[in-house]
Amino acid sequence: MDVVLTIAGSDSGGGAGIQADLKTFQELKTFGTSVITALTAQNTCGVQGIYPTTPEFVAQQMTSVFQDFNVKALKTGMLFSTEIIETVARILQQQTAHIIVDPVMIAKGGAALLQDDAVHALNTKLLPLATVLTPNIPEAEVISGVKIRNEQDIFNAAKRILQLGVKCVVMKGGHFEEADTATDTVFFENGSSFSMETKRINTKHTHGTGCTFSSAITAFLGRGFTLHESIVEAKKFVQLAIEHPLNIGHGHGPTNHFAYQELRGIYEVMVHETK
Ligand SMILES: Nc1ncnc2c1ncn2[C@@H]1O[C@H](COP(=O)(O)OP(=O)(O)O)[C@@H](O)[C@H]1O
Ligand SMILES: Cc1ncc(COP(=O)(O)O)c(N)n1
């Protein structure tokens, strides 16, 4: 059994954060462990409160997990503050597991899940350790300093991000709402790249899509899939999860973490890859 880890915030509504990550890990047949950086009082309508963990207690949780388990791959999600990022990065320096960084900044309803002054620590302390970074468009703009309006901007932003020491960056296209497709473009440090295109689903139930996608990459990498296979298979996982919503809650509902196992083979997911 491959052990994987999420270092992220708790979502009391169950659709994003630690809860989305552990559900995804379980569906993908890995043993999920967790380090909680903050509690959020949250539901599908928004974030009602945030209660961060102390950096010392984040460190204590990480030590408990690493002392007992051979963690094959791990992801980070909501990290909230400079102090938590610095603590996480310091401990991760001694680890050999694949590190997937989902640079969570703003919840879908607009609440800040990362303090503004923490971007510097993210860029300089954590990103140099990352195997994969999975920014959405607004996050890629903040990290790179490049305003993104078209494909050339995506390329320029990715180039800047790779210069920070990330080995692979997946630029997620979920926020291009006027497009017919949901296209994510993957750039590697050796200069190669490819795009993954799926049909865009017209839905407001996208709470936790980014968490689900990055935890699926983590699970597949933890099981020994290649980087390319892990990213493409994670795209299928999130596509099925968005395409078959559960219709829970009154706002932006969660995605369906059961869909990949239950519907794979019944509904074939077309991930159109281009170089
Ligand atoms: N409406 C949609 N239809 C299909 N795929 C989507 C849709 N919205 C987002 N995705 C996909 O979900 C994943 C998460 O993307 P995104 O929503 O941009 O991230 P985040 O949750 O971090 O804002 C990406 O693979 C993206 O292409
Ligand atoms: C605790 C927590 N972590 C992350 C997100 C972002 O969710 P999304 O995946 O929709 O960007 C969230 N809303 N809450």
UniProtKB/TrEMBL annotation:
Pathway membership, UniProt: Cofactor biosynthesis; thiamine diphosphate biosynthesis; 4-amino-2-methyl-5-diphosphomethylpyrimidine from 5-amino-1-(5-phospho-D-ribosyl)imidazole: step 3/3; Cofactor biosynthesis; thiamine diphosphate biosynthesis; 4-amino-2-methyl-5-diphosphomethylpyrimidine from 5-amino-1-(5-phospho-D-ribosyl)imidazole: step 2/3
GO biological process, one term: thiamine biosynthetic process
Keyword Transcription regulation applies: no
Domain named Pyridoxamine kinase/Phosphomethylpyrimidine kinase: residues: 11-256
EC number(s) from the headed UniProt entry: 2.7.1.49, 2.7.4.7
Top-level taxonomic group: Bacteria
MF term (GO), any: ATP binding
Pfam families: Phos_pyr_kin
SUPFAM superfamilies in the cross-refs: Ribokinase-like (SSF53613)
UniProtKB keywords: ATP-binding, Kinase, Nucleotide-binding, Thiamine biosynthesis, Transferase
InterPro entries registered for this protein in UniProt: HMP/HMP-P_kinase_dom, PM/HMP-P_kinase-1, Ribokinase-like
GO cellular component: cytosol
Catalyzed reactions: 4-amino-2-methyl-5-(phosphooxymethyl)pyrimidine + ATP = 4-amino-2-methyl-5-(diphosphooxymethyl)pyrimidine + ADP; 4-amino-5-hydroxymethyl-2-methylpyrimidine + ATP = 4-amino-2-methyl-5-(phosphooxymethyl)pyrimidine + ADP + H(+)
Similarity-based family: Belongs to the ThiD family.
PANTHER family given in the database record: HYDROXYMETHYLPYRIMIDINE_PHOSPHOMETHYLPYRIMIDINE KINASE THI20-RELATED, PHOSPHOMETHYLPYRIMIDINE KINASE
Name recorded for this polypeptide: Hydroxymethylpyrimidine/phosphomethylpyrimidine kinase
Species the sequence originates in: Lysinibacillus telephonicus
